[in-house]
Amino acid sequence: MNALLGVLAATFAALLPITNPLGAVATFAALTEGQEPARVRGQAWRTAADVAAVLVVFALLGTLLLNALGVSLASLQIAGGIVVGHAGFRMLVPSEQMSAPEQENTHTKPDISFSPMALPLIAGPGAIGVVIALAARHPGVGARLAIVLGILAISLLIGATLRWGTPLVDRLGPTGTGALTRVMGFLILVIGVELGVHGIQALKL
């Protein structure tokens, strides 16, 4: 039981900085600006549900996909480390993530919960790589269940943060939000480096 709780906690801890619920609030608030409060609340919870669905599917089927493609866990860890590290670096050195036409399209879309919020902003390649790596490292049925529960826990946190986090963004202002984003970016960059190191060590064994 303690081992399963450890897997659940490890899943939650690994996904927390990568999915970055607080950082997602600023984007969510911008994309839903001007919409009715009830519609915004609904999209917050739909985003959480979409994130959970995407990550659970990859947690359960990701290992089969790796085997079918002939990709090793070490290669996945190195590639995931590069992707995660790149995401963290972009948060440390902010740049425009979407072109002007893409931004205009997101503002006119009736529902932004799945795209771009769930994919690719929250449950992006980094988060997907992490859950696949965790599933490959813990192949037992009980461990897979613990990973799924960890994903559901982080998804609930994401939904709650998006639902009630808009006033926080307003209070922090651009300066506070930017500072928080850079702190999270540094943590994500460190996680990316750690993933890459584990992959390189696995290749040497």
Structural commentary:
Helices cover 86% and strands 0% of the residues. The protein has 205 residues and is mainly α. It is globular and about 55 Å long. The mean pLDDT is 81.
Specify the biggest β-sheet: none
Query: What is the subunit arrangement here?
Result: single chain
Distance between the termini: 30 Å
In DSSP terms (H or I, runs of 4 or more residues), the helix count works out at 9
The SS-based structural class is mainly alpha
Helix content: over 70%
Low-confidence region ranges:
none
pLDDT averaged residue by residue: 81
Number of β-strand runs: 0
Silhouette = globular
Order of secondary-structure elements: HHHHHHHHH
- Assess the beta-strand content as a share of residues: under 5%
Supply Rg.
Answer: 17 Å
Descriptive keywords:
205 residues
Q: In summary, what is this structure?
A:
The protein is mainly alpha-helical. The chain has helices at 2-19, 21-31, 37-69, 73-92, 100-108, 113-122, 125-137, 141-164, 166-204.
Layout of helices and strands:
Elements: H1 2-19, H2 21-31, H3 37-69, H4 73-92, H5 100-108, H6 113-122, H7 125-137, H8 141-164, H9 166-204
Helix pairs in contact: 1-7, 1-8, 2-8, 2-9, 3-6, 3-7, 3-8, 4-7, 4-9
